[in-house]
Amino acid sequence: MDQLLRVQNFTVSRDGFGAGEGQSQERPFGHADPMDLMAWAVATASFPNRTGPGGSRGLDDYFTRDFAHGIGAEIMGRNKFGPQRGPWQDHEWQGWWGAEPPFHTPVFVMTHHPRPSFTLADTTFHFVDGDPATVLGLAREAAQGRDVRLGGGATTVRQFLDADLVDTLHVAVAPVELGSGTRLWSSPDELLDRYHRNVVPSPSGVVHHLFWRR
Amino acid sequence: MDQLLRVQNFTVSRDGFGAGEGQSQERPFGHADPMDLMAWAVATASFPNRTGPGGSRGLDDYFTRDFAHGIGAEIMGRNKFGPQRGPWQDHEWQGWWGAEPPFHTPVFVMTHHPRPSFTLADTTFHFVDGDPATVLGLAREAAQGRDVRLGGGATTVRQFLDADLVDTLHVAVAPVELGSGTRLWSSPDELLDRYHRNVVPSPSGVVHHLFWRR
Questions:
Q1: What ipTM score was computed for the predicted complex, to two decimals?
Q2: What is the per-residue pLDDT across A114-159, written as a single tens digit (0 to 9) for each?
Q3: Gene3D superfamilies in the record, alphabetically (chains A, B) (predicted)?
């Protein structure tokens, strides 16, 4: 089996932004309301951060259910880990993901400012300064034959797309306009020269775009 | 987590038949052409019986990819195992599923004519005479906390629906009319009093119906 690099459940606004402007520790999505983007996923039975019972088991649930399936490592940009820019002031803060992060695999955080690895529950965060191909090599090795998830944000997905390293992308387009922020694309049609695509509207209001290599 | 009874990737004709008339060893789907029903699944990268590389990774692939995910046992009707009716003439023939069946779990074959269990690769077939609730109890125990797949055919799915034992159903409606055969429903709307539903047309031509309990 191929060992794929997969973007999963990545949500953008109708105008192509994965997050708004003005990210801070209190506002990981900047001026965007996270629920405007993530409500479709939060409502499903298989949402990775779900703590209680219930939730829908329709179309959207197939996407959240697939989040960890066959995945052995995640790659994320530094600002999916935390809001800091530049050198770390300290290593005390351990990211937005709580004491039990939803990844359950090694996570490779891309940053020009490495810091020591650490483990929270069954997730180990590694901080690596390297180009996309190098970081993907590390993540592939850690995944031990399973696929690698490219977790975002938009800037990081964009870097891997530009390096032509992404095998499949699932992007949910949410029914909201952000106007500014970190941009994934001007239009999803940009990828059609390299990828097949299915466009699947969901009753929840998002439109799932599923891309796989030609 | 709940231990669900799930129907997955079960395909029927537009007029509600899971198979045609006149089943035989050579024609498991009777007068129906299996490819008219199953082409959508066979084309995907994750089709359980795929032997070579390739295949699509769009919407339909999410369904075939989910086939084994979280499943610990399967229940099937006798005529998904083989074409025989009445008492077994011998036990030599070991079903339609080849030396490496795609189930990889215990399989409970419902029949009024039990025969000894046997194992092919990592699939063990058990033959049980019991009502749906009894067979589900056995399958749940064998699944060790994982979900149970209700594999079909249409008559068997119907029995479990009538006993109100099915938690989720994914039925793909294929663009073909069979006219006669084993019937799942007169209309998918029959289930709306008990289930939520998403209706999701696929570019492949099938329409996925996703039901989960109200």
A1: 0.94
A2: 999 999 999 999 999 999 999 999 999 999 999 999 999 999 999 9
A3: Dihydrofolate Reductase, subunit A
Best to test chain B binding among A69, A210, A211 (most B CBs inside 10 Å): A210
Q: Which chain B positions have a beta carbon within 8 Å of A197's beta carbon?
A: 58
Tell whether the model's pLDDT for residue A62 goes beyond 80. yes
Find which of A62, A69, A167 to mutate to test the B interface (most B CBs within 10 Å of its CB). A62
CA nearest to A65 within chain B:
B66
Identify the CATH number of the domain defined by range B5-83+100-213.
3.40.430.10
Q: Are B188 and B209 in contact (CB under 8 A)?
A: yes
What's the CATH number of domain A5-17+30-83+100-213, 3.55.40.20, 3.40.430.10, 3.30.428.10, 3.20.20.140? 3.40.430.10
Residues of chain A contacting B63 with CB distance shorter than 8 Å: 62
- In chain B, the N- to C-terminal Cα span, in Å, equals 17
Q: How far is B31 from chain A (nearest CA, A)?
A: 32
Whose structure tokens read 């194992």?
Answer: B119
The upper half-sphere exposure of residue A163, i.e. CA atoms within 13 Å in the direction of its Cβ, equals 15
Q: What is the mean pLDDT of chain B?
A: 96
Answer whether B196 touches A (CB < 8 Å).
yes
- Residue A203 sits at the chain B interface (C-beta within 8 Å): yes
* Domain spans in chain A, listed from the N-terminal domain onward: 5-17+30-83+100-213
Instruction: From B151, B137, B129, B141, select the one nearest B74 (Cα to Cα).
Output: B151
What's this model's pTM, rounded to 2 decimal places? 0.95
Three-state secondary-structure class, residue A93: coil
